[in-house]
Amino acid sequence: MRLMTRWLTEDELDAWLRLAGVMLKLGPALDSQLQRDSDMTHFDYLCLAMLSESGDRTRTMSDLAGKTNASLSRLSHVITKLEKRGYVSRCPSPASRRVTMVRLTDDGWGVLVKAAPGHVETVRSLVFDGLSADDVAALEKIAGHIVERIEASRLDSTC
Predict the structure, then answer these.
(1) Where does residue 26 rank: exposed (0-12), middle (13-18), buried (19+ CB within 10 A)?
(2) Full domain range(s) for residue 59
(3) How far apart (Å, rounded) are the C-alpha atoms in residues 121 and 128?
(4) Are 116 and 85 in a shared domain?
(5) CA distance 101 to 59
(6) Is 101 helix (H, G, I), strand (E, B) or coil?
(7) Cα distances (angstroms) measured from residue 27 to each of 33, 92, 132, 147
(8) Phi, psi for residue 90 in degrees, rounded to 5
(9) Residue 39 · residue 49 · CB < 8 Å
(10) Is 22 among the domain residues?
(11) Residue 66 and residue 61: Cα distance in Å, rounded?
């Protein structure tokens, strides 16, 4: 049985092309600023930032993967790189040796504190300047919807 293609409407196509432009341009723009100013990628920064938001600057690898929207394999590769730079350390969880904990080191905290103002200014100028409070709320809702759909499709494909 052949399914009918549900082609995009003209409005959907216009919105899709704009979103595709954001996906293709925003990551490299954030990477460029962080590489230039702090010698790290946006994903490196995001990992450090998510660790810093935990009270003891420590999270499980699984929790950090969820917070950064990353696969465990991608996260493991980046954590290894950050560990070599002295920004994070890994250790087994006291609750279960099968669970790996990642902790932001003092050096990692220092790098993050130094990188944050430039990164936040870049995010503000590229994403939020010129948006109303309603626009920001709509952006959060739409982005959340898209991420939820992606996550749900991954779960469906593993069954």
Answers:
(1) middle
(2) 29-128
(3) 10
(4) yes
(5) 6
(6) strand
(7) 10, 32, 23, 16
(8) -115, 150
(9) no
(10) no
(11) 9
Between helices 10-38 and 106-123, what is the axis angle to 10°? 140
143 shares its domain with 122: no
Question: What's the CA gap between 128 and 136, in Å, rounded?
Answer: 7
pTM tops 0.70, yes or no: yes
How does pLDDT run across 135-157, given as a tens digit for each residue?
999 999 999 999 899 988 876 66
Same domain, 59 and 101: yes
Which of 72, 85, 98 is CA-nearest to residue 39? 85
Q: Are residues 50 and 82 in the same domain?
A: yes
- List the structure tokens of 71: 């696969």
- DSSP 8-state assignment for residue 159: -
Nearest of 90, 95, 52, 49 to residue 72 by alpha carbon: 90
Q: Which residues contact 67 (CB under 8 A, 6 or more apart)?
A: 50, 59
Q: Is residue 98 part of a domain?
A: yes
pLDDT digits (tens, 9 = 90+) for 9-46: 999 999 999 999 999 999 999 999 999 999 999 999 99
